[in-house]
Structure formats: structure tokens, C-alpha cells
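I hope you will forgive my troubling you with a question about protein structure. I set the record out below, with my sincere thanks for your time.
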Amino acid sequence: MRCDCGEQLDEAIRRIAQPISIPSPSPSMPPTSIPGRGAVIYLRQEGRGIGLLSKIRAYNLQDLGHDTVTANLMLGHKADERGYEVAAAILRDLGLGTGPSEGVRILTNNPDKMQALEKEGIKIVERVPMIPRTWSHKHQHHDGEHSEGVADTALIVSADDDEE
């Protein structure tokens, strides 16, 4: 009930399904539209990789006024223990982000995720902020830190061939 993971997944799927407009080669012809494309990679890394039980303990510390990072540190964990090797392997298996002229767009609020994927050999051409529609009213993101419950579990990538 405290996590926005489901909402993020729904928004990721909604955004990836949106049609892509491709400019026409001739100014006299209208642009064409193709179906949305890409991949959603969902990594089960509860509580920034600390596991479900520790995540619940972190929630208790957050109820006492601590932020997510401080709570994780107080429990003896790193601020973020997630890894993206599996995501990179999936992208490689799909042939995304590994070719010399092909990169991927990634939907995330977490620049560390982008750097971790690049370290694994995935070419990132753009980071697209993850802002589900309901966040515009519920959450304030003013210092780069995620509001409580904002998980970085939805990863969207799409081939960067004909887009833009």
C-alpha cells in the first residue's frame, strides 16, 4: 500500500504502447505513425535491493522521520544495493543497446541505473523521467531524492531507429 511500483509499471506499459510518429520524407506528405515498441524489464529488487523484510523495517524507521537512504543505512545496508547485470543481460539477449549505431532510451528517475547499464555495455541515448500521471498531484521531487514509495523497478527501453 505504500509503494508506487504497480503505478510505475502501469505507466511504463502505457507509455511504451503509445504510437510513434515518424516524420515524412517529403514535406507534402503527412507523418506516419507506427505502433509503440520497446521492452519493460521488471527487476524484483525490493527496497532498493535490501529485501522485503528489511524494507518493512525501513518503513518503520521512515515512520519515525528517517528518509529511505538513512533507514537503509541504519539497518546495516548500503543506500542502494540493487544491481542491473540481469537487466543488461536481457537487453543483450533482445539485441537492444549493443549495436554500434543502436542505443536505448531508458525510463527512470535514477541516473545510477543508467550508469550501471552503461558499465555493462548498454548504450543509453536518453534518460526519460518516470512521472506517472498521479504523481503530479501527490509527490514533490525537489532534491533528486525519490518520495516515499517511489521505486525504480520499471525500466523501459526502445530501439532508437526511427524515433526522433
Remarks:
- Strands lie at 20-22, 32-34, 39-42, 104-107, 124-128, 154-157.
- The two ends are 38 Å apart (CA to CA).
- Residues 139-164 have pLDDT under 50 and may be disordered.
